[in-house]
Amino acid sequence: MTNQDLLAVAREFGSPVYVYDAEKIAFQYNRLKNAFSEIKDLRIHYAVKALSNISILKYLNSLGSGMDTVSIQEVRLALEAGVAPKDIIYTPNGVSLEEIEQVVRLGVQINIDNLSILEQFGAKHPEVPVCIRINPHILAGGNSKISVGHVDSKFGISIHQMPLLLRIVENTGMTINGIHMHTGSDILDIEVFLRASEILFDSAKNFKNLEFLDFGSGFKVPYRENDIETDIEELGEKLTQRFENFCEEYGRELTLVFEPGKFLVSEAGKFLAKVNVIKQTTSTVFAGVDSGFNHLIRPMFYGSHHDIKNISNPDGKFRFYSVVGYICETDTFANNRRIAEITEGDILAFSNAGAYSFSMASNFNSRYRPTEVLWYNGKAHLIRERETFEDLLRHQKIVDLEAPAIKATK
């Protein structure tokens, strides 16, 4: 997508607006697939939580992707998008046994990450094959909020609890058909990932009826020019050899599964916002836009970096701006960022806005959630309408109340 394409989207659909490049999504999908082309049975399950618009799910499914889901609602979205139940894995955390049973009735592969639910489920449904999520106690992730494999994480069954896990499996007679791990997002060093993989292989030796090993994801994408990213090609070369060796030791071919989210959609997304006001203070020049952390919370929540370009004046003289939103809270997208000169009415484009951006949007300050557009085959396709005031009132119930009488005091 060119700057002119993005400006045309902003003119047609207004701002703020999310724009996703289908070609970039396909490129990333095929890049991962090609890196592991030597694997006889590779499955890529897109992490729905990253961006759950049903048009995106349908597009990824058309590329050959299955779905990684964490809630029954995500499971239902995947089914609605036409994904076969056998191509969906459900990996919840802290949900009730009742929700897991509902998902089982939909024919989806379940993945259990705690001993209590595993024992309860195995006692009631020993005939249903189950995947187990282990915690390898390997720290990965660029931020504490997205590191999920460390020793104090709420996710997964600790590898040190393997004897308890095996006792539950033996006592219930349940079948374990998969082993899963996920260390966290933004993996910087593939050697860390490979060390965690060895723990997964060691854990897998305890189970005789495995059909697949699920390595999760967390592959880092670049957020700025010359930024570090996960070397998928090197990882593919090293992990392929190790996986094939393990399958030979295990005695049969297994399926290798990945669950990328950010890797597939982050770079495909642009977020466009219009500059409402330029405000000069004694020390700072603020560019205030028609959005806020209600639409893009990652900078405030994770401290994440999003490149910001003034696509209305890309060749202008560079100045330093703090880009802020219109929310009645501290609401900063960037501090003292070098951007081509901005005037009121300009359109700013935020990069890496495809993952965990719209999906984490809210109606804080009673603002509407924005439009979503898919750029496909050189054309803009509306895939979500901007919310309206009626949407804010939807599901609310108005109750007629009278204020209590106030007694006079002496």
Automatic annotation (TrEMBL):
Give yes or no: UniProt keyword Ribosomal protein: no
Q: Which GO terms describe its biological process?
A: lysine biosynthetic process via diaminopimelate
Q: Which residues carry this modification: N6-(pyridoxal phosphate)lysine?
A: 49
Domain of life, per UniProt, equals: Bacteria
Q: Pfam families, alphabetically?
A: Orn_Arg_deC_N, Orn_DAP_Arg_deC
Positions with a binding annotation for substrate: 298, 302, 329, 356
Listed under catalytic activity are: meso-2,6-diaminopimelate + H(+) = L-lysine + CO2
Output the Gene Ontology terms for molecular function. diaminopimelate decarboxylase activity; pyridoxal phosphate binding
Q: What is its EC number?
A: 4.1.1.20
State the family it belongs to: Belongs to the Orn/Lys/Arg decarboxylase class-II family. LysA subfamily.
**Function per UniProt:** Specifically catalyzes the decarboxylation of meso-diaminopimelate (meso-DAP) to L-lysine.
Task: State the name under which the record lists this protein.
Answer: Diaminopimelate decarboxylase
Q: Which gene encodes it?
A: lysA
